[in-house]
Amino acid sequence: MKTLSAAAILLFVVALNGCAIIPGQRMDEGALQREGSHMQLVQITPELVDSSKQPATIPQELLSYQPQDYRIGPGDTLYITVWDHPELTSPAGSQQQTVANGRLVRPDGTLFYPYAGTIKAAGLTVEELRQSLTKRLSSFVRQPQVDVNVVGYGSQRVTLEGAFQHTDAQVLNSVPVTLSQAIGMAGIDAQNADLSGFTLTRDGRTYHLDLTQISQADNGQPIYLKPGDKLFLPYNDNKEVYVVGEVIRPQAITFKTTTLTLTQALGRAGGLSPITSSGDAVYVIRGSEKLSETPAQVFHLNARSPASYALADNFRVLPGDVVFVGAAGITKWNRFLSQLLPLSGLIYQTAGAADRANNF
């Protein structure tokens, strides 16, 4: 025979490609379980889901803190009343606003008051300052009746940074402020905030609090803020889960809580493709910071069973996870044929040209 028939060549190519990997992504579970592999295959089971659940907790020192009586500080404005002595109470005139007759506490913590002289006010409560003024004025005023009020607060603040709508510092006054109240006044950028990454820094220590779970963890016990507290709410722009493979809309999904489940991640991607996906090939790939010491993990879910959806709804994905859905066997074969058929056409053309050349 002068040349191989086109059919024979085609059969040879099919046999040759049968030894190769069928085109398309797939997960080789056998390779994951070989000795020396840097990947660990883990089946998603009820036991695994239960063991991964961690109850939300709040450090006891935050819950046990109780605000003390307000203490005067630099920047506060005080309105001091000496009854029956308007010349002391309102030196600017009774027609002026209260603040105009107020006494500003200087940066060094002192203030001046007629006949009482310079007084160290910072660090005193309102009652302690009232008693001190009464004692000093008693040498010049008979049985002085003194009253002290803070009409301008400027010394005690809480700072806010990050994904708040208003990041202006909040001034604390004589009325205690809770964490939830401060967050409510600041407002949250709900679309871009990472609620699970919230931190409160107090006295040099940083506490990590999940705002989505904090109401469940404190049992209704408020967290009071302390002067100098710093509230930070990060953005979620680097908190993503990547859904790839045989889903309707492969994409990177950002999320703002710690409760994004595998079901939710697949749902945002449109779900498994009903035509091309394999229900028993749903994987969550989770990397390791030190791959040489700790293997990465590949969690496997067989989504063909109805019970698997209950598992997926309780399995939490983490930032950086890759959710991969493999292709069905028929899909792999169809993709193989789609790459093979153009090659077979070329073989037919080559064989035909060879026959025509040999006929001359």
Notes on the protein architecture:
- It is found in: Cell outer membrane.
- The protein has 360 residues and is α+β, with helices and mostly antiparallel strands.
- It has three domains: 29-54 and 238-328, Outer membrane lipoprotein wza fold like; 77-152, wza like domain (wza like fold); 157-233, Roll (Outer membrane lipoprotein wza fold like).
- It has helices spanning 6-17, 29-32, 46-52, 60-64, 86-89, 126-137, 179-186, 214-217, 262-268, 307-312, 329-359, and strands spanning 39-43, 77-82, 103-104, 110-113, 117-120, 146-152, 157-162, 170-171, 199-202, 205-208, 230-233, 240-245, 251-254, 277-286, 296-301, 322-327.
- A six-stranded mixed beta sheet has the order 1-15-14-16-12-13.
- Helix 1 (6-17) packs antiparallel against helix 11 (329-359).
- The protein is rod-shaped and about 100 Å long.
- The two termini are 16 Å apart.
- Residues 1-24 have low confidence and may be disordered.
Number of strands: 16
CATH structural fold name of the largest domain:
Outer membrane lipoprotein wza fold like
- Terminal residue distance: 16 Å
Q: What is the top-level CATH class of the largest domain? A: Alpha Beta
**Continuous helix count:** 11
CATH homologous superfamily annotation of the largest domain: Outer membrane lipoprotein wza domain like
> Mind summarizing the main beta sheet?
6 strands, mixed
Task: Give the low-confidence spans.
Answer: 1-24
Structural domain count: 3
Which radius of gyration do the C-alpha atoms yield? Answer: 36 Å
Q: Write out the strand line-up for the largest beta sheet, numbering strands in chain order.
A: 1-15-14-16-12-13
Mean pLDDT: 80
Task: Please identify, by name, the CATH architecture of the largest domain.
Answer: Roll
Helix content: 25-40%
Instruction: Please trace the helix and strand order, writing H or E for each element.
Output: HHEHHEHEEEHEEEHEEHEEEHEEHEH
